[in-house]
Each structure stands twice: as C-alpha cells, then as structure tokens.
Amino acid sequence: MAGEYKFNKLQLKARTAAPKPPEQTAPADPPPKPGTQPEPAAIPASLYPAPLAPTTLEFRTKVEAVLANKVQEELQSHWLATWLLGAAAVGVVFFTFWFIYLFWSAALGTFMESRHWFRMALSAAAVMALFYLHFRRRRTYSTELTIPLKGGTAPLDIYLPVQFGQVLMSPEYFAPPAFIGPLKYLALGLFLGPHVAATAQYAHRCRPRLQAVDVSACADIVVLLMGFNKRVPLAEIVEAFPQLEPPVILRQLARLSGILFIQGETPALTLSEDLRRELQAAMGAT
After folding, report:
1. pTM attached to this predicted model
2. Rounded Cα gap, residues 261 and 142, in angstroms
3. Helix (H, G, I), strand (E, B) or coil at 222
4. What is the pLDDT at residue 176?
5. Could you tell me which residues come within 8 angstroms of residue 127 by beta carbon, excluding any fewer than 6 positions away?
6. CA torsion sign, 224 to 227 to 229 to 233?
7. H or E element: which one contains 156?
8. What gap in Å lies between CA 37 and CA 61, rounded to an integer?
9. Rounded distance between C-alpha atoms, residue 236 and residue 149, angstroms
10. Is a pLDDT exceeding 80 seen at residue 82?
11. What average pLDDT does the structure give for the chain?
12. Residues 155-213 pLDDT 10s
C-alpha cells in the first residue's frame, strides 16, 4: 500500500509539472497596401451598454443617418439666416441713416438748411463709422473648455463654436462696452445694423465648417451617449476614442443641435431629450 501511494503521488507530480502546450494565436493582419487608407478601429463592444450591444452596428447606421439629416438642416438654417439677416441689416441701416440725417438737420438748424448733400454725406460718414467701430472690436466666437485627463496627462484645451443665434441675442457681441448709462440704449439702436450684418456674416462663415463635419466619427460618440441617461465626462470620451482627434470632433459636435456640452469642474457631454427621442424612434423603426 505504501508503494502504491508513493507511485500515485509521483504520477500526480509528473502530471502537474508537464509543460502546457503553446496557445494558438490569431495571425496578424496583413499590412495595408500602398496608397490605401487603413480601416478605422472598431469601437470596443465593452463600451456599449447591454441593451444596445446586439444591435450596435444597425443602430449606429441609423444614428449616422439622423446626424447627416441634422447637418443638412443646419446648413439650410444657416443659409436662410444669412439672407434674412442680411436683408434685415440693409433695412436697419437704411433707418439708421435717416435717423442720423434728421439729427444733423435738427443740430445744424437753418444754417445748413439748403445743403442737403452735406447732411447726406455726414450721415453716410456716421454710418460707416458705426461699422468701423463695430468690426474693429475683436470678438471671440468660441468658448474655451479645459478637459482634465487621467494618468498625469496635461489637460486638453478645446474651443467650442458659438451658435449664430447666441451671437445675435447676446449683448457681448453688440455695441462697444464704452457706452454706459442712457447712452447705452442709444448705442444699441445705432449699432443694431452693423451687429445684424456681422451676425449674417458669421452664419455664412459657419456653412463650410458644417459641410466638413465628420458624421461617421460623430455617430460613434452619439451611440455611446445613447446608452447613458446621464452626462458622460469628456475625459472618458477622449480616452474611449483614441483614434479620433478630440479638438476637431468635439468642435463639430458643438455645431449640431441637441448635443449639450456641460461646463464645470468635470466637463461632460450629453444629449437633449428631443434628440434622444428622435434617435430612439430611429432605432425602433424598421
């Protein structure tokens, strides 16, 4: 019995000490042919929530279609705003010109009563001075956002564009700040024409940038946001998509309605309720 026990013990030791066969590894992908672009890296399946995992590819295609429609809607709205604001600027400048003309008529009185052309020239010079004062002031049509990254990496600074509607309504882009008190309201009226003209110019300049939006890359981020009913920190989005250029893609996302950037100590990104319902309807459509 003792010899049999010793034999079984040695046999067990030999089995445990036997070397394991080498693991089979998948062959490496062949390098891309010269002159061809490598395919973008796929989004890790672990990033998607469980309900979306089985239909991720199909849903992503529908999200991309929804975003492409949104880009077209933004292009049409910017085109319409350019023409409407441009026409409004012409009308406002016309009334401003004659308001200044009446001012010169009242200020100069009968001294210049017979010199109509001189009052016209003074009014035109005043209108041009308003445009010069408005456009010489440097305006920043973007907001800076700092994204703190993990692992001791330096923070990432990005500049998000301002919507033309915010430019039109915000006092920051209106008259020069030197006017205070009662003159402030007079300045708002005098600078209304140049301000509307500048807003129309800004809406026109945004159209080429909208045409350059990478809908496919934006869809990757939107699909990820759809899986969460809360905000997602921008630092996690930057780390989840290393193949994308965060400063470029985030600026493009900011140009689309329904993408909400939340500033604060931890900047985050989320979707508006309207866009979320639109995407859910697209996912449920057959």
Report:
1. 0.69
2. 13
3. helix
4. 64
5. 93, 96, 97, 100, 193
6. negative
7. strand 156-161
8. 21
9. 8
10. yes
11. 75
12. 777 777 777 777 777 766 776 666 656 777 788 888 889 989 988 998 998 899 889 89
Structure tokens at 188: 């708002």
Q: What share of the chain is helix, strand, coil (3-state, %, to 5)?
A: 60, 10, 30
Q: Burial, 110: exposed, middle or buried (Cβ in 10 Å; 0-12, 13-18, 19+)? A: exposed
CA distances from 116 to 113, 120, 123, 127 (A): 7, 6, 11, 17
The fraction of the chain above a pLDDT of 70, given in percent, is: 72
Residues 6+ apart with CB under 8 A from 108: 119
- 80 neighbors 207 (Cβ within 8 angstroms): no
Instruction: Kindly state the tokens that stand for 55.
Output: 């239909």
* Residue 108: both structure tokens together: 């100069």
How many whole angstroms separate alpha carbon 203 and alpha carbon 188?
A: 21
Tokens coding 274: 């309207």
Q: In angstroms, rounded to a whole number, what is the distance separating the alpha carbons of residues 67 and 72? A: 9
Give the range among 4-8, 44-48, 265-269, 275-279 with minimum mean pLDDT.
Answer: 4-8
pLDDT one-digit tens code per residue, 35-81: 443 443 344 444 444 444 445 677 788 888 999 999 999 999 999 99
